[in-house]
Specification:
This protein is an all-beta fold. The protein is built from no helices and eleven strands. The protein has strands at 3-7, 10-12, 18-25, 33-39, 46-51, 58-60, 68-73, 78-83, 92-99, 103-105, 109-113. The strands form two sheets. Strands 2, 4, 5, 6, 9, 10 and 11 form a seven-stranded mixed β-sheet that branches. A four-stranded antiparallel β-sheet has the order 1-3-8-7, with no helix packed on it. The termini are far apart.
C-alpha cells in the first residue's frame, strides 16, 4: 500500500530551524510532484512548497518565501523541507503530498514554535 512517512517535527523557539523529511513507498516516487502543506487549528490547509518530479522546478507560498526550502532525493524516495527563522505563526501540522494521476497524503507532523 502507499505510504508517506514524515519525521522531523517538534518544538522549537522563535528564530530556530527544523528540517522535515517525508519518505514514500508503494508508488513510483520519481514520477510524482511532491509538496508540503500545513494546517493550524481553526484555519484552512495552506500550500507551503512544491517540487516537480525531477526536482528541476520549485514554488513556494508567499508566507514562507525566503525562509523555507524544499528539496528531494529520488534515489531515497524522500523530500525535505528546511525551515529557518521559524515564528509562532508557523505552528501547524505539516503534511506531505504526492501528486500525479492520483493524490496521496501523509499523516502529518506537528511543528510548534514557542518560547
Amino acid at each position: 500500500q502507499v505510504q508517506l512517512v514524515e519525521s522531523g517535527g517538534g518544538l522549537v523557539q522563535p528564530g530556530g530551524s527544523l528540517r522535515l523529511s517525508c519518505t514514500g513507498s508503494g508508488f513510483t516516487f520519481r514520477n510524482y510532484d511532491m509538496s508540503w502543506h500545513r494546517q493550524a487549528p481553526g484555519k484552512e490547509r495552506e500550500f507551503i512548497a512544491l517540487s516537480s518530479s525531477s526536482g528541476d522546478w520549485r514554488s513556494y507560498g508567499d508566507s514562507v518565501k525566503g525562509r523555507f526550502t524544499i528539496s528531494r532525493d529520488n534515489a531515497k524516495n524522500t523530500i525535505y523541507l528546511q525551515m529557518n527563522n521559524l515564528q509562532p505563526e508557523d505552528t501547524a501540522v505539516y503534511y506531505c503530498k504526492a501528486d500525479r494521476l492520483r493524490v496521496y497524503w501523509g499523516q502529518g507532523t506537528q511543528v510548534t514554535v514557542s518560547s
